Amino acid sequence: MTRFGIVGGGLMGHGIAVALARAGHAAAVHDVDPRTLAALPARVRRALAECGAGGPQAERTAARVTAAPALGDLVRDADVIVEAVPERLEVKHRVLAALESLAAPGTPVWTNTSVLSITRVAEGMAHPGRLVGVHWWNPPYLVPLVEVAPGARTERRLVDEACALLAAMGRTTVRLRRDVPGFVGNRLQFALVREALHLLDQGVCDPATIDTVMRSSLGLRWSAVGPMENADYIGLELTRDILGSLAPHLSSDTGAFPGIDVPLGEGRRGRSCGAGLLPWPPGRDAEVARRLSAGIRRNLAGPAAAGSGAPAPATR
């Protein structure tokens, strides 16, 4: 059993704790907000129920997740520290500095940043070699993928150890060769989001149409066959011809995004205020959460149901 200390008990922090506990590890969670810590047991139980876990087994798993009211309590016994605070460099630098003032120099630190450069995150550290980028996907207790990346000064040994530990948990672990903002997944995801916003800005369709196209075509395909395999499958000549025809028309915007900027300017921030790109009437948020969870579980069960078995963890 590895003892993890998780700094940040929000959406990702508590979810990572549940994923670690389900793999048999202990996870102590610290958050500066006492209300977040007080809600930790209930959130852990809800996450386990979402995983289909119940009864004595769920109780044993939940007991592996504990609240650490003080940062020193968390660091003192941790074999690995996980940083899961908001995606702002100044916040991460402040938290990592506090951690280093309390932790032994050899304790590895995993940052769960999803978009920031690992090298930039490590800039404020006295021991930047200990920082490894370990990006879990939301919700961590359901989505098996974890992306691992080094910063410019990360010790290779710690990257190796992180990949081995995650693979032993049954996580689908991918290892990046170098540090790049957004890892692989978010770069792919937001390239698609940028093109979707471009279609809105050009008056091609409305937001609901974009979601319908994705869910009824690419969403069905990409859960089974990725874009690189599909390029080979249809042939690289055809793939090159399509790129040659489409690339000049695709968005290359890097600054203004009217499709998001306009609703934001009108106070339409999304789910939290009842409207964004789409309307969010009462109950829609819960319905989307249920649909998301059910869709992930259905996709994960698909290979086994088809008789091919679940995908094996892979380290690349």
UniProtKB/TrEMBL annotation:
Pathway: Lipid metabolism; butanoate metabolism. It is an enzyme of class 1 (oxidoreductase). Gene3D superfamilies: N-(1-d-carboxylethyl)-l-norvaline Dehydrogenase, domain 2, NAD(P)-binding Rossmann-like Domain. Keywords: Oxidoreductase. InterPro entries: 3-OHacyl-CoA_DH, 3-OHacyl-CoA_DH_CS, 3-OHacyl-CoA_DH_NAD-bd, 3HC_DH_C, 6-PGluconate_DH-like_C_sf, 6PGD_dom2, NAD(P)-bd_dom_sf. GO terms for molecular function: 3-hydroxybutyryl-CoA dehydrogenase activity; NAD+ binding. GO terms for biological process: fatty acid beta-oxidation. Pfam families: 3HCDH, 3HCDH_N. Residues 182-253 form the 3-hydroxyacyl-CoA dehydrogenase C-terminal domain. The record marks H135 as: Important for catalytic activity. The keyword Oxidoreductase applies. Its EC number is 1.1.1.157. Residues 5-179 form the 3-hydroxyacyl-CoA dehydrogenase NAD binding domain. Belongs to the 3-hydroxyacyl-CoA dehydrogenase family. This is Putative 3-hydroxybutyryl-CoA dehydrogenase. The gene is mmgB.
